Amino acid sequence: MKHHDADVVSLVFGLLFLGVSAMWPLIHFEVLGLPGLGVAAPVLLISVGLAGLMASLGRLRRDR
Amino acid sequence: MTEAPTTPPADGGGGSAAPPGIGGELRALRRSRSDRVVAGVLGGLGRRLGIDPLLLRIVTVVLAIFGGIGVLAYAAAWLLIPAEDEEASVAEQALGRHDAGSPRTATVALALGLTLVALIAGGGIVGGDWDGGVLLLLAALGLAILFRRDDRQAAAETAASSDDPTHPRPSFTDYPGYPGYPGSTSATPSVTAPVDDESATDATSGDGEKVQADTSVVDGAEAPDGDTSDGPAVAGDIAGAAGPESAGPSRWWTEEQAWEAGQPTRPADDTSWDPYAEPEAPGPEPRRARSALGLITVSAAAVAVGALAVSDATWADVPPATYVATALAVVGLGLLLGTWWGRSRGLIALGIALSVALVPAVAVDRLGFEGTDATFRPTTLAELPTGTQDHGAGSVRYDLSGLDFAGAGRKSLSVDMGVGELLVIVPPNVDVEVNGDVGVGELRAFGQMSGGFGQETRVIDVGGDGKGGGSLALNLDLGVGSLEVRREAP
Predict the structure, then answer these.
(1) Which residues of A touch B344 (CB under 8 A)?
(2) Pick from B292, B342, B355: which is nearest to A20 by CB?
(3) Which residues make beta-bridge pairs with B410?
């Protein structure tokens, strides 16, 4: 496998899937109830989205 | 919705006039690029079947609402059906179709692993220990991809890479031992001489494995004993490759020349050249090499899920959603790795399918599918629950035998349960009206028994003392299982 420029699509989906899978133990061990999930899901989406945005902007700046 | 699409059946993909059977028909399916709402699955399917895609969309949405099957089926189709302008489906790309190295060996290993997972999951379902349905579905999906992939690979290998002089790959027909070989001896190093003899006899006797193994030796990519489990596919290769060979032997000669020309560093008569050695310089690649990351990730996920299944079967108690969450985490890691190394975008579709599967798995967990064994024994009438009591699954018992209903007016208890055993015990003298509803299973009220589908019973029983002794209404609703109401002294 060769090193290449950061692939933003992979980054965003990778973080998203990791975040979603991390919610399962939180729910299972009742750290996070349904109301907690209502907070955690947007937090996850926003942080993943921000990471994607930053990576995209970084790449745009480098391309220029 | 009334007008049928006038477009003729898709010409893309299949090409052949009469696709052979349902397999060929399935392989010819393509996701539509132009007629799409999400990924063009239904657009492509509608065109192929000559049905208005709108109809298919409505059916899918309805299926998605009732039970979520529509979503799963759509996700699976998205994974498995290639887009119009693409050769391979997302899943195939993720698994690294036509990967360098020994794809057959990897395929066989992966197929065996998936079959094992399917067997474990199937055994779990039959044994009723844990809910392996999701796992079974995933394993079946993986197997479908593999077999589809192997089919197409065999077909592609009959054409071999001989059409592509920049990417030469020696075929077994390149050996002098093969009957149709044009007759050159100088180009082939003497080291391979004994192998040639074998290849000659085996090729004529039609033993596919050996020939495949010999080819692999020179490829330097596969162990000499090669794979032993897909003889028929290799035999297909031979049949396919023998066709063009007999039609024009000169073509193979020129290819041989081109191959040798492409390797100027290897003198034809240099005996020090070891054909078993890895080629030190792979040379310019005509197309982008498939990244191994997809295959690695899927394999790692399979190993993780398998390890969970083993621990579930032996010592630990693993809730079903853990399987899905673990696979999803591995896919996420693979994608994260793919951000900087290799390519793994194909895993996205897999991750989406797993995320979708995680929702019902978690829901089942929250409802207590593992089975809550609960007993409720109120000691005063005030403790008798008033609202409808909801239970997911398990064995639930309401023991009301300690209550004195006499002179308390009419009381009621409503219980709604999904799957399992529901038992309500009432004191000997209370007048009881039972409204029982069992979807599938057995209903028993004061010794009266009925079983089967859709049991709805209304039983009134006044107890041993005739009328009097208080009054109780039981509204009991059970999806699947056994429901019983009986009297017992405290």
Answers:
(1) 10
(2) B355
(3) B471
Spatial separation of the C-alpha atoms in residues B300 and B118, rounded to whole Å:
16
Across the interface, whether the CB atoms of A1 and B325 are under 8 A apart is answered no
Token digits for B105? Answer: 């060996």
Q: Where are the alpha helices (DSSP H) in B164-230?
A: 193-205, 208-219
Out of B77-91, B156-170, B195-209, give the one with best mean pLDDT.
B77-91
Residues of A in contact with B348 (CB under 8 A): 9-10, 13
Give the closest residue to B241 by CA, choosing from B178, B316, B303: B178
- The tokens describing B30, both together, are 């393509």
Q: Which residue has the tokens 């539509």?
A: B32
Rounded distance, CA B33 to CA B38, Å?
Answer: 10
Quote the tokens at residue B276. 């078993």
In this predicted structure, the answer to whether residue B383 has a pLDDT above a threshold of 90 is: no
Nearest CB among A1, A14, A18 relative to B341 is that of A1
The number of beta carbons lying within 10 Å of the beta carbon of residue B91 is 28
Give the three-state DSSP class for B281.
coil
Test mutation, B322, B328, B347, chain A, max A CBs within 10 A: B328
CA distance A27 to chain B (A): 8
Q: Going by C-beta distance under 8 Å and a sequence separation of 6 or more, which residues neighbour residue B238?
A: B172, B203, B206, B208, B211
Q: What are the pLDDT digits (tens) for A14-49? A: 998 998 898 888 877 777 766 777 788 888 888 888
Nearest 10 degrees: Cα torsion B259, B265, B270, B273: -80
Number of Cβ atoms within 10 Å of the Cβ of B17: 5
The dihedral region occupied by B481, where left means phi > 0, alpha psi between -120 and 50, and beta the remainder, is left
Give the residue-averaged pLDDT of B279-291: 52
Whether ipTM exceeds 0.85: yes
| Residue at B218: amino acid letter | V
Burial label, B357 (beta-carbon count in 10 A; 0-12, 13-18, 19+): buried
Q: How, if at all, do strands B410-426 and B471-487 pair?
A: parallel
Q: Give dist(CA B417, CA B390) in Å, integer.
A: 6
